[in-house]
Amino acid sequence: MIHSVGNACSSGEKRVRMPAVAGAFYPADADTLRETVVSFLSEASSAEADKEVQAVIVPHAGYVYSGSTASEAIKAIPSDAVYKRIFLLGPSHRAAFDGASVNNAFDSYATPLGQVKVDNEAVDALLHADPVFTYVPEAHAREHCLEVQLPFLQVHLQHVPPIVPVIIGTQDLAKLRRIAQALQPYFTSDNLFVISSDFSHYPSYEDANRVDKATEEAIESGSLRKFLDTLEKNARKGVPRLATSACGQSPIAVLLLLMERRKNLQVRHLAYCNSGDAIYGDKDRVVGYHAFSIVKKAEADAFSLTGEERAQLLQIARKSIDYELARKTDLPYDSTKMSPALQQHCGVFVTLHKGGKLRGCIGNLIGFLPLYRLVANMAKLAAFEDPRFYPVKESEMKDIDIEISVLSPLRKIQSIDEFQLGRHGIYIIKGEHRGTFLPQVAEETGWTKEEFLGHCARDKAGLAWNGWKDAELYVYEAIVFGEEK
Fold first, then answer.
1. SS3 content of the chain, % helix, strand, coil (to 5)
2. Of the given ranges (49-58, 117-126, 278-287, 385-394), which has the lowest mean pLDDT?
3. pLDDT (tens digit per residue) in 214-235
4. 379 close to 349: Cβ distance less than 8 angstroms
5. pTM of the predicted protein model
6. Number of C-beta neighbours around residue 315 at 10 A
7. SS3 per residue for 106-124
8. Residue from 275, 126, 143 nearest 200 by CA
9. Inter-axis angle of helices 149-156 and 63-75, to 10 degrees?
10. What DSSP designation does 30 have?
């Protein structure tokens, strides 16, 4: 026996959450729906799907508006991927509550294409994990943001696993951290996370493009702080009719919190449009749609350092400066006690701060020495050879904080679409002109991608503001760590 939304059932009866928006957000006829989804997917990028997709961010508007963008996110998932379960996270459009609602009232969700099972065991585990999780019936009854994802998954995936439907109704950061903490054990390669979100709501077509670009770059950085700061900055700009920059702000925040413990993941932006691009779209009042995938970094990008190795490098940097001040001839390290990671050749920058202000910064992008030796050299240069500052004095050392940025190998890019603000540093070369900014400069300044490149071209490479446009561009990543006070 199949019951519609909200109906209770006796023991042994199959509980099915029937479609709430079929015929409105997407076709109610099964054949038409399948043809529609197949058409979207066939027109999506033909680029090879990533082998390991941990999550996607997908819009949830009517298919006529956001279907093309949604298909880019879904097609990024290998069609033959086998997941244990899919976590569907979306914002509440119809119910106000201060937490997360997990739907434990149904055994499956129905669409015109058939039924998708609910993983009730995982649902119950979340409900018992933290009181922040409850079941709020009205949060799911007529909610569309999770339902519209299912037909795409049903058509694209050869194996559709059970789902865990989660609607988030809070923006309280402490509660979002609790939600992420409970979900963390599931945030593995065994499971797929589908984050449902539209973006700017109701500005003009041109304003939406600008606002959504800033939000895109913040999400690409993988930084929760940058994401929340960007939403706040967008809100303060006074953009006419801008109600929100991301209606799925909370689910996205939870995703970024989950990523904080998975340093081997990166965000890829896949597509953007807004409702003004649709055949029925009004360009005076639009909604923005992005597609992202969260994938495992290539092994070449996955270089890491243990906490002990980081502490060892910081000690080497400080000793190098102290020994130079004391005119000691001893080496500030024991080369026989260096791990393989510290013997690799990679670029490094050593930055000195005093009272929160820059006091020196020197680095080498290439890595012409083993890492531990390069750190020792760059620390001394930052303290005594940075032409912007007087040499550091011994009396200052107690107030000096040391930060080290270990760099990955340089990678030449052909388009700034390959440059991810906040994740990548940039190196600009044009003739004899060269300049670089470390990845963390983006977070420290709050610049957009274009501002980051413009300042680097003008202030570091000695070019015109737009000089990066016809220069050689290289990107790199950085492992950044500093002394704890």
1. 35, 25, 40
2. 49-58
3. 999 999 988 899 999 999 999 9
4. no
5. 0.69
6. 15
7. CCEEEECCEEEEECHHHHH
8. 275
9. 40
10. H
Determine the residue type at 282.
Answer: D
Strands of the sheet with 433-437, listed across from one edge: 411-413, 472-476, 425-430, 433-437
Q: What are phi and psi of 475, to 5 degrees?
A: -120, 160
Q: Which amino acid is at 150?
A: L
Which residue reads 């797929």 in tokens? Answer: 192
Only one residue has tokens 């990671």, namely 341
Q: Are 102 and 133 in contact (CB under 8 A)?
A: yes
pLDDT at 365: 85
User: Rounded to whole angstroms, how far apart are CA atoms 141 and 147?
Assistant: 11
User: What's the rounded Cα separation, in Å, for the pair 10 and 2?
Assistant: 12
Backbone angles phi, psi at 351, to 5 degrees: -120, 135
Closest C-alpha among 252, 192, 250 to residue 218: 252
Q: Which residues, 6+ apart, have CB-to-CB distance to 48 below 8 Å? A: none
Measure Cα distances from 246 to 97, 102, 198, 250 in Å: 18, 21, 6, 9
Rounded to 5 degrees, φ, ψ at 399 are -105, 0
Beta strands 85-91 and 163-168 are parallel
| Cα separation, 278 vs 139, whole angstroms | 29
CA 156 – CA 13 distance, rounded (Å): 30
* Exposure class string for 15-36: b at 16+ Cβ within 10 A, else e: bbbbbbbbeebbbeeeeebbeb
Cβ–Cβ contacts within 10 Å for residue 131, how many?
Answer: 9
- 333: tokens are 């390290």
Q: What is the pLDDT of residues 428-464, one digit of tens each?
A: 999 889 999 999 898 889 899 999 999 999 999 999 9
Closest CA to 16 of 156, 127, 165: 165
DSSP H or E stretch at residue 183: helix 173-183
Is-contact 352 400, C-beta < 8 A? yes
In terms of C-beta density within 10 A (0-12 exposed, 13-18 middle, 19 or more buried), how is residue 61 classed? buried
* Confidence at residue 1, expressed as pLDDT on a 0 to 100 scale: 29
In angstroms, the CA 229 to CA 225 distance is 6
